[in-house]
């Protein structure tokens, strides 16, 4: 969990820094630090689903080890 939190802080810092450097705006930097990782999280979900299908075939009946994370 510590590794995950440190990576999240690094990710937010990079997103903020790049947006701030490009725009000079703390507001835009802050918004990008929140929006970009949130978008990445959604994209990652769909990437994992597609990757799972690619690895096991579309009609695989094997259980997904991360299925608990997909439950809404």
Report what the structure shows:
The structure is a single chain. It is built from three helices and no strands. The protein is mainly alpha-helical and 72 residues long.
Which strand-content bin applies to the residues? under 5%
Q: What is the count of β-strands?
A: 0
Fraction of residues in helix: over 70%
Q: Specify the number of helices.
A: 3
Shape descriptor reads elongated
SSE string:
HHH
The largest sheet, given as strand count, sense and whether it forms a barrel, is:
none
End-to-end C-alpha gap = 22 Å
Low-confidence stretches: none
Instruction: Please give the radius of gyration in angstroms.
Output: 17 Å
Mean pLDDT: 84
What structural category arises from helix and sheet content? Answer: mainly alpha
List the helices and strands and how they pair.
Elements lengths: L1 H22 L2 H31 L10 H4 L2
Helix pairs in contact: 1-2
List keywords for this structure.
72 residues, mainly alpha, 3 helices, 0% strand
Summarize the structure.
The chain has three helices and no strands.
């Amino acid at each position: 969990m510590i590794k995950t939190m440190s990576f999240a802080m690094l990710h937010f810092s990079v997103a903020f820094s790049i947006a701030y450097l490009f725009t000079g705006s703390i507001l835009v930097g802050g918004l990008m630090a929140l929006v970009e990782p949130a978008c990445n999280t959604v994209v990652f979900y769909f990437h994992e689903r597609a990757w799972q299908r690619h690895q096991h075939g579309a009609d695989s009946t094997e259980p997904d080890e991360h299925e608990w994370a997909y439950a809404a």
